[in-house]
Amino acid sequence: MADLKAFALNCSLKSGAEQESSSTDKMIDDIFAALAKHGVVGETVRAVDQNILPGVLSDMGQGDDWPRLREKIVQSDIFILGTPIWLGQPSSVAKRVLERMDAFLGETDDKGRMPAAGKVAIVAVVGNEDGAHHCHAACFQALNDVGFTIPANAGCYWVGEAMQSKDYKDLDEIPESIDQTIKMAASDAAHLARLLKDSNYPGL
Hints:
Distance between the termini: 34 Å
Radius of gyration: 16 Å
CATH class: Alpha Beta
Shape: globular
Pfam families: FMN_red
Domain NADPH-dependent FMN reductase-like: 7-162
Protein name: NADPH-dependent oxidoreductase
Order of helices and strands: EHEHEEHEHEH
GO molecular function: oxidoreductase activity
Number of helices: 5
Organism: Aquibium oceanicum
Oligomer: single chain
């Protein structure tokens, strides 16, 4: 029986509504396959297909899809942020997602805990240029700032040969080193999420 829930936001710039394949989706799917072996189930939403309004509140008003996505995040035990690398940076979509989580800073409970307290985060990065470690550093810092716990080895990435056209989704099989990284991230995230679910941080 699955006892943990995960929710992933694919921050590709490609629209899922147009059935465009996404390397970010492929890596997230691989992470979910690894998580399933540890009793984790969940879903992925492609963020660019949602109307995530700019801002730093949990609800920016009429037409804002973020409140629904926020609810999925806070109801999950594991949050997966997937982003491609563009110009050496996380995608603009990923940055908007992180900006919207800034609201967590002012939404503490009576023990001073933010909505993400007791939840763990994995970051998946894909691209054809340098920047994976920079993307992880930027995303993990932001996620930790708003209350997520970062497990050991929680950064999964694949970076193809610079300025070439082969993407992660084009690989015939997952390279062994990437496969091991994904499996370790899943194992560590599920282990830590289960511990925190059973005994959350005490707060103030």
